[in-house]
Amino acid sequence: MGLGPRWLPSSSLGLRRRVRRRLGLGRRLASAVVVVEEVPPESRRVSQRLSLTAQPLAPTVSIRNTFRAFWPDTRGVRRLFVAGIVFAILAALCEVAAIGLFGYITDRVLSERDLGAFWAPAATWLGLAVLAGLVSFAGAYVTAAGAERFLLKLRDRVFGHVQTLTPDFFENRRLGDLMARLTDDIESIEELVGSGLVKVFTTVASVIFFAGAAFVIRWDLALVTFALVPAFLVVSKLFASRFRNAAARERTSNGIMNSVIEESLSNQSLVQAYNQQQTEARHLHREGRTWLRANLSQAWLSGLYGPSVQVLETICLIVILGFGAWEIAQGRLTLGGLLAFAAYLAYLYPAVQSLGELALTVSQAAAGSDRVLEVLSVRPAVVDRPTAAPVRGRSEGRIEFSRVGFTYPKRIRATLRELSFVIEPGELVVCTGPSGSGKSTLAKLLLRFYDPNTGGITLDGADLRDLTRSSLRDSITLLHQENLLFSGTIRDNITYGSPDADHAAVVRAAKLADVHDFIQTLPQKYDTPIGQRGRLMSGGQRQRLAIARAILRDAPVLVLDEPMTGLDVATAERVMEPLRRLMEGRTTLLITHDLRHVPEGVRRIELEPVRRSDRIRLRRHHFGVHAAGNC
Ligand SMILES: Nc1ncnc2c1ncn2[C@@H]1O[C@H](COP(=O)(O)OP(=O)(O)OP(=O)(O)O)[C@@H](O)[C@H]1O
């Protein structure tokens, strides 16, 4: 009858995303480990729900608190959402007017057989249809524009927060689950706080308009109609809580499945070398079945919801038609009036129904937002003190560890105890010791990924805790054990950390790192892509690229964590030369257990693993002493 498909803004958006979620596994990477000790106060009401894999679900957060947490992020896009609501209301008004015209045409033209009275209302109807089409389009567009911008802002905020967390956070979680939280789960928040809210307003407005128009035609008939509306809301409430639980399980298993995919794909050479393809496929299949069951629960609920509401709707229409026929027989209603009334109901009930559906959408979206809020509630293990000051000028590079003791969070045995040493400006000191003795831990403490439990570390006499972390890290270059590269070009990787460096500086660093000649042999030279994490390069080439990056950064302190790992003797020799150039004039802590390449006469710090007795003593003192010795 009317003006084409009714416009309900977020249903299409939400549906589109849900469909994408179901089909879009390919674009996602990797699982769900939920750390329960760092949760907001409200999550003390942690639900006891468990996923199908017996994995705890994210703590449930009330919708009001979800709004409180994310509403400020809608600043800047609220105007778009308001415009979306206004356009939707205009579209609904056009529909109301068009149905009124339909009733008029039935009574004045069809019943009285007066063709002359047809043209003017017909032209108006057409005009309304065009207008409704235009405002529907405008409404859908501005709502989508607001939704996507909100999403962008939200993702930036959550990603920004995640980047403030110390490496410990990432070491305790599976990457794929974090990725799912940063992509799909963030979209859920948009569906709740952005387009979801627009849909609530526009649907409520539609209900009011269609109900009002029906009331104007016959108030008593309308009252009978409205008396049946609560039945719709009761049904949707019955479904909503079950739906939220199913959605939470789906979100969690989605994270697990992403983790399996990410870990399997990123370790493909290991998987294939060990002939574990079938095992990995079975693993994914197992997790996929969990996901499937959670999705089927949702499909079962939403599938059952539609027919239940439809039966209710039919009952209502039959009751109304019966009453209407009686009113026509009494002469209190015209045929056109009854048809228009029925048409309003045909719009009113779906609007009421979509209000109910909204409860399901909200439940589903809330399950995703719980997972994002859980991440946002984690506080970084190390923060800047309010009084922290930046490193003054260029650091001289004098480092002092004084009686440092350190135990990793959630570990009983201390990693370092009473460790004291000094590295003078420009000095090279080698740190050796067996595996697990805490060598890399020194580097983490120096960069303040963690703070020592006892004692202190100073740079140029200033306690690291009194310096801002960004200025501290600007003063130190860490060359990791596994050279970390991004999948960009050679230039991108060398200039990482020094984005303003010009080409001449990049070439100079590459020459000093002894990698320039190799780069010249590549088809696109400095603009050659190096593959995922630099896998198109050999180990030695990757290491020399990392050295070039460190040279370009030019920090006064250098921490080299096993720079020769995985290199054969000849390659290690080749890497050592640029390393010596890099170390010149810089305070250097060289962590290695391979002393073959260490120059003569260099001071050595030897670590030994913490003894078991230290652990027993720690237990006995119950966290009284945190460190266990090894220097
Ligand atoms: N993030 C962490 N959380 C808990 N324990 C950790 C963490 N990182 C390291 N450890 C533990 O701390 C101890 C010291 O680790 P570290 O990596 O510093 O040793 P290392 O001397 O560098 O060893 P390697 O020579 O094998 O690299 C080990 O027992 C290790 O299991």
Automatic annotation (TrEMBL):
Entry annotated with the keyword GTP-binding: no
Pfam family, one: ABC_tran
SUPFAM superfamilies recorded: ABC transporter transmembrane region, P-loop containing nucleoside triphosphate hydrolases
GO molecular function annotations of the record: ATP binding
Keyword Transmembrane: yes
Localization, UniProt: Cell membrane
Gene3D superfamilies: ABC transporter type 1, transmembrane domain, P-loop containing nucleotide triphosphate hydrolases
Primary location: membrane
Alphabetically ordered keywords of this record: ATP-binding, Membrane, Nucleotide-binding, Transmembrane, Transmembrane helix
ABC transmembrane type-1 domain residues: 82-364
Organism taxonomic ancestry: Bacteria, Bacillati, Actinomycetota, Actinomycetes, Streptosporangiales
TM helices/strands, residue ranges: 80-105, 125-147, 196-215, 221-240, 332-349
Superkingdom assignment: Bacteria
Annotated protein name in UniProt: ABC transporter ATP-binding protein
Ranges for domain ABC transporter: 399-628
Membrane topology (UniProt): Multi-pass membrane protein
Gene source species: Nonomuraea guangzhouensis
SMART domains: AAA
